[in-house]
Write a structure and sequence with these properties.
Elements (H helix, E strand, L loop, with lengths): L3 H27 L7 H24 L4 H25 L7 H24 L1 H6 L21 H39 L31 H11 L9
Helix pairs in contact: 1-4, 1-6, 2-3, 2-6, 3-4
Length: about 240
């Protein structure tokens, strides 16, 4: 295993994706997603997990050819569109603070970086998609002739389930539970505890004055206030 791009993919890109995913889940929990944006946003998260997980699984298991590259490119753009949908919906329901926004930047760029590395390792199959090069596009699906170590594949799949799929599934279950509690509360007229949807004003997460999910103030606030104060012209009093 002397290919540096393969080492980067296996031991840097995939672990960073796992880490960013679990931090993102924690941000959702701290922002009380189950009582605000609820199960709908959690379903969107599971959809994005599938959009990244499918090409990841295929690259790990099958020979990378024009088919695998085409599917990966297609799902990358689908994932980007879904991410836009996710944030557009979330900011109307809950705070999406600076920490979570920064994590989102990782979750969007990691698939792109992985895709670029895969294309770089299999350039002839990529150019074959456009009828360029010495080989024809191969759209067959076949297992790797030289498979990755079994221990690595098992570890990646187990961690993906434990740190990505299960937490987001738990998030969905919480959202459905809180939704049912709200419905029962509306029917019986009782007040439901631990479910505190934000008002429209509080949900303006895109504002530079929004607080982060961890509770600290947005560091951009002080800078903006300084700039605003410096633009204030103090009138000169006449003697």
């Amino acid at each position: 295993m002397n290919d540096p791009t393969l080492i980067i993919l296996m031991y840097f890109i995939i672990p960073i994706w796992f880490l960013a995913g679990i931090v993102d889940w924690y941000c959702h929990k701290r922002s009380h997603i189950s009582g605000t944006s609820g199960a709908k946003e959690s379903l969107i998260h599971l959809l994005m997990f599938a959009e990244v997980g499918i090409p990841l699984f295929m690259v790990l298991i099958f020979e990378v050819n024009s088919l695998i590259i085409a599917i990966s490119i297609l799902l990358f753009f689908v994932h980007e569109a879904t991410a836009m949908w996710d944030v557009s919906y979330a900011v109307t329901k809950r705070r999406v603070g600076p920490i979570e926004q920064h994590v989102h930047s990782f979750l969007e760029m990691i698939p792109l970086l992985a895709l670029v590395l895969v294309v770089g390792r299999h350039w002839p199959h990529f150019t074959a998609l456009f009828g360029i090069g010495e080989i024809s596009a191969d759209f067959s699906l076949q297992f790797k002739e030289d498979p990755l170590p079994t221990w690595y594949l098992v570890t990646v799949l187990l961690i993906a389930l434990a740190l990505e799929f299960v937490p987001y599934l738990e998030e969905l279950m919480r959202g459905l539970k809180d939704k049912n509690q709200i419905k029962r509360g509306e029917t019986t007229g009782t007040r439901i505890r631990n479910v505190t949807p934000l008002s429209d004003g509080e949900a303006e997460a895109a504002s530079p004055y929004a607080t982060s999910v961890a509770g600290e103030e947005d560091p951009g606030v002080a800078l903006e206030e300084l700039v605003e104060s410096s633009n204030v012209v103090t009138p000169i009093s006449k003697k």
